Amino acid sequence: MIKETTFDPIFDAQQSFRVLLNAFGHPGTIYEFEKYKLNQPVDLYPSNAVIALALFDNNVSFHASSNYAEFAESYIQLNTSAQIQNISEADYVFLNGNENIVHLINECKKGDLSYPEKNATIILKVKQISTAIISNYDFQLVLSGPGIESNKILYINGLLIENMQAIQLANMEFPLGLDIILTDAHENICSIPRSIVLQIIQNN
């Protein structure tokens, strides 16, 4: 496993952190990180690696082994000093949306009424997210709520609809729920905080 040397832990991390702040401030809007020359495992999109490099430290716990190869966890721990944790206790969970992960979504921590902020953020890997219609999209996702003036529509490919339905169900008891960061093969990222109301429209 190779330790990253080209990603500056101060300058690059701050720049990437600002992108994530913008993404969470504007749910449903697609953002991109700067292109960094990273040595991340093939299972991790570069954007997934950048999220870890920008956000994680030794006070953060994460989980990736449930449907990623184990070396994804080793890479993240080596480069961030974050703690590998069981999925039910992890602050951040890396999941592949193109596999059936409903049982894993259900295991993620959703906070409690005393501490709703002690929930998990899922970094959810899909094939493509777009605000414009794309060929062979699986479904439209209509987002409304805080940070969205009217609504936002995302077209998503490579995310099983039952996974999205499980997230939708988990977030119906706001302020409890799961925060989501979608990442795709084109290095796009997009946030869906748990405060957002979701409508799923299947592609017929």
Folded structure, characterized:
- The protein is globular, with a radius of gyration of 16 Å.
- The protein is α/β, with parallel strands linked by helices and 204 residues long.
- It has helices at 11-25, 46-55, 70-80, 102-107, 161-170, and strands spanning 31-32, 61-63, 83-84, 92-96, 121-125, 128-130, 139-144, 152-157, 179-183, 188-192, 197-202.
- Strand 7 and strand 8 form a beta hairpin.
SSE order and pairing:
Layout: H1 11-25, E1 31-32, H2 46-55, E2 61-63, H3 70-80, E3 83-84, E4 92-96, H4 102-107, E5 121-125, E6 128-130, E7 139-144, E8 152-157, H5 161-170, E9 179-183, E10 188-192, E11 197-202
Helix pairs in contact: 1-2
Mean pLDDT: 94
Which CATH C-level class is it? Alpha Beta
- Binned, the helix content reads 25-40%
Radius of gyration, whole Å = 16 Å
Q: Into how many domains do the coordinates divide?
A: 1
Which class best fits the helix and strand makeup? alpha/beta
Report strand %.
15-25%
- CATH names the topology as Rossmann fold
Strand order within the widest sheet? 1-10-9-5-4-2-3
Taking the sheet with the most strands, its summary is: 7 strands, mixed
Uncertain ranges: none
Q: Encode the helix/strand succession as letters.
A: HEHEHEEHEEEEHEEE
Task: Report how far the terminal alpha carbons are from each other.
Answer: 44 Å
According to DSSP, the number of beta strands is: 11
The CATH homologous superfamily: Bacterial phosphonate metabolism protein PhnH
The CATH architecture can be named as 3-Layer(aba) Sandwich
Alpha plus pi helix count: 5
- Spatial shape: globular
